[in-house]
Amino acid sequence: MDKVFKALADPSRRQLLDRLFAEQGQTLGALADGLAMTRQAVSQHLALLEAANLVATVKRGREKLHYLNPVPIHEAHARWIAKFERPRLDALAALKQRLEGEDDG
Amino acid sequence: MDKVFKALADPSRRQLLDRLFAEQGQTLGALADGLAMTRQAVSQHLALLEAANLVATVKRGREKLHYLNPVPIHEAHARWIAKFERPRLDALAALKQRLEGEDDG
DNA sequence: CTAATGGGCAAGTAATTACTTGCATGTCAA
DNA sequence: TTGACATGCAAGTAATTACTTGCCCATTAG
Fold first, then answer.
1. Domain boundaries, position B11
2. Is residue B105 part of a domain?
3. Chain A to chain B Cβ contacts (< 8 Å)
4. Are A48 and A9 in a shared domain?
5. Which comes out higher in pLDDT, residue B10 or A93?
6. Which end of chain A is more exposed for a tag (fewer CB within 10 A), N or C?
7. Which residues contact A58 (CB under 8 A, 6 or more apart)?
């Protein structure tokens, strides 16, 4: 879980995830293209994302294809982030209850 | 947004958020009590959380009371995390969570 | 008042992080 | 086979991070 948060904490890595979201199955070279850092830097970021299980890879010949794996992000949300939304949702529910006159939910 | 992710990337800070979630309005001393680091370390973590707008503070005399602010977390989810989710993965993540148990720190 | 309490500031350190350069390896095409 | 291409590996560096120690200021209790 720590790996996921740390992976997400870097803007370069989020940018890479964005690029993969726009088009999956990209190679390292394609992902690094146009970015203001070396191919190796991108490779290291991708390795981190892979270690966090946010990105899955498939080797095809001499190329390495990268795919998004949304599961860890979803787990991070479900296990950890969601509970901090509860107060807000409670307030919402309370409001809704007041407005609708319900007494169960 | 970067501040939020970076703030969440540290287990000590997540622990502090957990403590605040359990009981809001705690002082620095109360939050630091029982933790394996100095009061100053905790203070610095809280300053970071405050800078990320995840924690709001109120000064009362010589005490500083800390409160959770779930809004940035909610925004991070809504603007950035949500797009990586797929409806079908809800069940998957929940199942996996049940099978693996809680192991977040 | 004095002293204890709650907290802040600043400098220093060890570990980590992000990134680079240089070279090696495997693959494909001619 | 030769050479170009995609990627991997390793070492080095500069910046950041997490944490500490030591001292200072403000508030409150005795």
1. 2-100
2. no
3. 80
4. yes
5. B10
6. C
7. A64, A65, A67
B92 located within any domain: yes
Q: Are B89 and A70 in contact (CB under 8 A)?
A: yes
Same domain, A6 and A48: yes
Band (pLDDT 50/70/90 cuts) for residue B11 is very high
Provide mean pLDDT across the span A7-34. Answer: 95
Q: What is the CATH number of the domain that holds A56?
A: 1.10.10.10
Count of structural domains, chain B = 1
pLDDT single digits (tens) B81-93: 777 765 444 444 4
Which carries the bigger pLDDT value, residue B60 or residue B99?
A: B60
Comparing CB atoms, the residue among B85, B103, B104 nearest residue A74 is: B85
- Say how far apart CA B56 and CA B102 lie, in whole Å: 28
Of A6, A68, A71, the CB nearest to B93: A71
Whether A7 contacts B5, CB under 8 Å: no
Task: Find the mean pLDDT for residues A29-43.
Answer: 96
